Amino acid sequence: MKIYGYRLPAMSSLILWGILWEVVGQTGVTFFVPPLSDVLVTLYSMIGTTSFTRALTETGYAFIISIFIAITIGIPVGILMGRSRLLDELLLPWVNVFLSAPLTALVPVLMVLFGFGMKAIVITTTLFAIWIIILNSRAGVRQINRSLVEMAHSFGASPVDAFFKIYFWAALPEILGGVRIGTIRAVKGIIIGQLLISIVGFGALFELYSANFLMSHFWAVLIVLFALAFSISEFLAFLERKVAYYAAKR
Hints:
Elements lengths: L1 E2 L2 E2 L4 H16 L8 H11 L3 H34 L1 H16 L6 H8 L3 H25 L3 H9 L4 H12 L1 H25 L4 H11 L3 H28 L2 H5 L1
Antiparallel strand pairs: 1-2
């Protein structure tokens, strides 16, 4: 970020917003926004407690399982859609529908079908993440230089070899972009699932603290959630930059 031609250090915008948050909190304009210093003190006292550790474990478990399922299914389906016109015409309308639709409206249906436990939360989170992974994987395959595929076939590559050695690696920048966006959407999905389906994990903490007007605790949990999502997103963005040279080779 630059101000009057001077480049500020990284994360300067977050520092400025933090200062503004502290000033607004100290004025006492609303109880909903406590001072940032109080929130950080509360966060420090919460870390290591049994309730926080259990919530982090439950949320992390559901998140990891959901992302694993979304990646395992989404990437191969997207690559196959990019390769096959028939499969693309069959699945693309449904992928676009689910990507555009308010998935929160499907939560009651998932609760009826899969109950009120962890299974429904995992499925909800997977549905939030998988569609953008499919679309990005499809887009990456459709941009591959056809000469790469023809060269592989001329050297006797089987369809399986072409899938893993040509399509996957050449589409990797777009695939990672889809995984990054899907991960961000999964964070939203898991909190919705833990608030609407089963009050567990961070959803249980949000419910507890908001119901008792413990706003410092509420914002502390929210900061942890945002920090985790931001860290994962930045790590995947770093991987995107590392494999960006594949795009030029296509």
